[in-house]
Structure formats: structure tokens, C-alpha cells
Design goal:
The protein has helices spanning 18-34, 41-48, 52-58, 62-85, 91-109, 111-118, 125-148, 157-174, 182-200. It has nine helices and no strands. By secondary structure, the protein is an all-alpha fold. The longest helix has 24 residues, at 62-85.
Amino acid sequence: MAGVSPAPARRSRPRRDNRQQALLEVAARLFRTRGYEAISIRDIAQEAGMLPGSVYYHFPSKDDLLLAVYEAGIDHLLAGAKGALVSSDRPLERLAATSRAHARAVLGGSDAAAVVVRVLPRHDRLLYRRLVDLRDEYEEVFRQLIAELPVAPGVSRKYLRLSLLGALSYAPVWHHDGPDSPVTVADRLLACFVEGERRSS
């Protein structure tokens, strides 16, 4: 199994060209809709209108392509969170705004973001660890937000964070069955966890 190739630090990667970007967009859409294991490099090449060898020119393996999709997804999620964080100086409002940004991203805003929250293959330990590290980079935003939030005695901030992120990230599984907007989804899910704090803030 090819595994993922050694790579420099994520933030120092070179700027992608247009063909790379097209491959990333196709791969993200196919990974999201059909699953990582079900998709081959040949499938991605065909959908992108390229030969398989052209894909390998840009990405040495499918694992490398998944890693690049994850990086793009994390960048999208972090950009949304950054915009949300400056919307207020009140902890609960900041958490609400960031939750809405997350919901918008995974509910049609970005195929790559949807891959981040739904695809985590375990066939290669190095790849798995790098994908988890990317997730942790984004999850740190929610960890800090919930650390600032006043919560009732005995409430675990860790489980509050995991439950909220889990609920938001699972929304793409069922959201197509309902009319609610991503913002409504985020607000209603957040209310399930922090409605008491919302009333007292």
C-alpha cells in the first residue's frame, strides 16, 4: 500500500496550480458522495477529464490526495471560524457564530469540509495520525470557545465540545430530509446543549 508521502509542514506548501485545484475539487466531491475506499485514482482522473498518470504527477498516491483535500477542508473551516470569532466579544455569541459557520461549511458550503467531518480511514497509521492532527487544529477553536463559556457545575467541557461538534458534523447525514437552513440547524443544535447558559447570559 502506497501510504502517504513525506511532506513539509502544512502551512509551507506551495501554491496549487489550476489542474491541482480541479483535481482536489473532483476528489473532494467523490470522497464525500461515494466514500474514500470506493473511489480510485482512475475514477478521479475520468471525472476530471485527465489520464491517471496526470493525477499521479500532482499527487503520488490517493492517500496524498486525501491529505490535500483535508488541508483544503481545514482551511475552509478555519476561515469560517476566523470570521465568526470577530463577530462578538460574548462567549456564547462567539460559539453560536462559529457553529453556524461550521454548519454552512459542511452542509453544502465545501465538499472538502464535509470530507473532514465524515471521512477518516484507518488503513495507514501515518496518514490517520496526520488527518487527526489536522482535525485537532480546527477543534482547538471550539475547545477555546467552550473554555470561555460559563457552564453549570458538573458539566464536562470536553463532552460538551465533542457532543456539539459531533451533532453539527452529523447533520449532512439527515439534513437533506428537512427544510431548515444551516444557520437554523446550528442554532437548534446549540440550544440543545447550552439553552440554560443562553437564558442566563
